[in-house]
Design goal:
The complex is a heterodimer of chains A (354) and B (587). Chain A is an alpha/beta fold. In chain A, 47% of the residues lie in helices and 15% in strands. In chain A, α8 packs across α16. Chain B contains 24 helices and 2 strands. In chain B, strands 1-2 form a two-stranded antiparallel sheet. The chains are: A alpha/beta (354), B mainly alpha (587).
Chain lengths: 354, 587
Amino acid sequence: MSKKGVFIFAALLSLGPQLSRAAEPAALAKLIAAAKAEKEFTLLGGGGTWGDADAQKLLENGFNKKYGLNVHIKFVPGPAMPDLARRIADEYKAGQKSASDMYLGSESHFVELTRSDALTRFNWREAFPNIPAPMVEMDGRLLREATRYIGVSYNRQAVQEKDLPRKLEDLLDPKWKGRIASTPYAASFDRLASIIGPEKTREFLKRFTQNVAGLIRCGEEERLASGEFVMLALNCGTYEAERAQRQGMPIGARILSDVPIVGYWYLSVPKHSAHPNMAALFAGYLLTPEGQKVRYDSIGATAHLIEGTPANKQYKDLKAQGIELKEFTADFVIKNGKKLGERRDEFQKILQQR
Amino acid sequence: MSVFTSQTRDLNFEMWRAKSYRVSQRSILIIIALIPAAAIVGLLIIPIWVSVRAETDAGVAFSVGAYRALLSDPFSYRTLFNTAIFSAVATLTALSFGVPSAWIVERTTLPRKGLVFTLMTSGLLIPGFLSAMGWVFLLHPRIGLVNAALGLVVAADWARINIATPAGMGLVQGLGLAPLAFIMTAATFRSANPELEEAAAVHGIGGARSLFHVTLPLALPGILAAAIYVLTIGLAAFEVPAVIGLSNRVFTFSTYLYSQVHPQEGAPRYDLAAAFGVFVMILSAILSWLYFRVLREGHRFAVVTGRSYRPRQVELTRGGVRMAWGFLGFYLVIGQLLPLLTLVWSSLLRYFQLPSAAAFANLSLVNYRGLPWPYLIDGLKNTAFLMASVSTVVLALSLAISWIVVRSKARGRFLLDAIAFLPHAVPGIIFALSAAYVALFILRDYVPIYGTVFLLLSVYVLERTSFGTRMLNNAIAQIHPELEEAGQVMGISLFRRIGTILAPLLIPACINGWLWIALLTYRELTIASLLVTPDNVTLPMVIWGLWQSGSFTRAAAAAAMGLAFMLPFVFLYWYFSRRFAPEGLKT
């Protein structure tokens, strides 16, 4: 390439973000302008939510680059998702500013937040036309951030490929007795009941709990890697195991073909956020191709409705295998909150009390 | 008929003024003591209210549903049984190591005893959940290092030690609480009057008999106070049962409570948690009553009097020195060194592995590099502020409360002491919930304290007042009132008597108390977990946040950094506590 060509290429590269912003929708331009006035924002959450220091730096840099900002994102190690949801709801009721400018949680964590009417309704697709319509739920209060394929996570050194469970029934094999873990909150078993019925789920759990050696939380892959437990069933998303694998842990994950449950992580902006525009802009950024790449590199979770993401590829693969995924949205969980809650209480007792 | 002269009128006026001055000083002291007591009562009424409150379609109604649910569930009774075993084993373990260690350090001529003091103190810096993780990897039936070694000798399953039982957890908790028993009883042994031991020696009673028939009975109030204190910690202990028990389906009350208040999905059962809190408050009242009975007998054990105060130490033979070091070394290795080594080891790994060639090849500083440094430093600053301020305020308030409880004849003084003790026995999580509620919904328009470090300061002070008052009750009970009575006869005012007679004698206890309240503040997690916001984050919360997100090894790295930050502090205060201790109390 000639010197002139190199110069033009470099100039185009440097102008790239500005050129792309020239084609921005007016709503996005307005949002960026409002966000610039806010200068900074705060995000509370555990390492599983916003990643480690490196991941947070990537997010901050990527966000600033994308929208030509110079924003400091204050990532604060915070409580678990349900605790944070409760705090945000309490702060809203008390008329206090929200401790976190944005909330990220699973479909179950929004029951109280929506009941308290603590979340902002936002016209996401007006500012971010790339966001597919099904990703916006609850009248714009919730935005799907990532897809979670529920299955089992396991220690690859302790469990051979041929021994892996393929169906739910395989988890009852006596060879797992005293070796596997489940979650103290019976993750996804209430969804299982919606697929196979509460009675069958109850019977399954009563037998399954005989094999369970202990209860660990999702995200504790280190306890699988250390050999304390050889498997976690059901997990909160196969992406967590894949992330652990990339970090050098001998961890794998598998979806059970007869219970292909799908859940989501959702983003929301509390009404009492101190920096709502910045939070909304950041939420939109996370669903851009650049944002999804950073999220994949740091957390591992991406959205299957966004073309080209790992979750999108996994979705297509599962479809090609003939697996009919059972989707559980926040809309479904919030509308059936009472019934699901009662089931969850019952299933938790079975798992916790043996 | 009396004749009033100007001189008698002046004298009467002076006497009236002196009397009213004394009354006002006593009143001031009572007001100072009543402020935290009122705050404690206020915060504890909230869980009672929540426990009988039910939200219905028609509004809020009175209900005993939470109590019915708690009492009708067989799981509650199993949890109660587990908690009883756990607390009993924790208390026995803590006293078994703490009391002899305190006696050895304070009452014998053991060389280099200052090192023991520092090591015992620094043991408290290791967060309980990381010690517990260390023990999981030492005594886990499948992956525990010790069990792996035992497996080489005996193949049978019965030869394995299972840490995931109520007794196993109690052992781990007790090892962690031994420094607390040590520090609570050290002041007692330090102030013990050797005259009675010397009298025993004159009558031909040997060292061991003298120890069991003179020294230990003299120290009984201090030991019982420590036992009650440790027992109540056991009732509400969270970290060890959470790490070891929860994942192995062995529940104690605290983890049962936690599971109700912190459901991963669905609404929290605050009513059940509050009902549990009320239940523990009743247990606390019983323990307080037992404690007060001991305290009421305190005068029989008064060991520091105005006439004779010459603490002397038992001369150890060479064999005695070896035995003492053997005992202390055994505790320090299993209670402190092993968890500490496990902590540092795990901080260098991406995930926990037993020592092996492969594990050594994987050692790196990646966990340290990935720490959220800005927040770690913010947390450290806030924690340092809280350590200094909480300790100072607690000691000032505790001195007022303890003086009223032990020295005054004020009506309701034992009720005041019971109230001061309550925050210790009521699970911190209940206390924090109440405080958050008050700050958010009651104080917000008058004192906007929510989200500030001052909310943490206030709640920590109330919570730690129980520790401060146990320590000072015990210390004041051991100082015979004749010294202050002599001052009163000489017309010295109450504040001057406290300042010039009582306070100097309390210096050793106060220095110990200050240091330990600071260290307990450093560790405080349960309350912080509900009250911390981005603006008042503490160091333990940074570590806990990492642990909660499943980053155990990174949490270990953060804890190791915290330990490194805090060690100079421990050495500094150990140095000053020795330097400013009165002559004769220095070791």
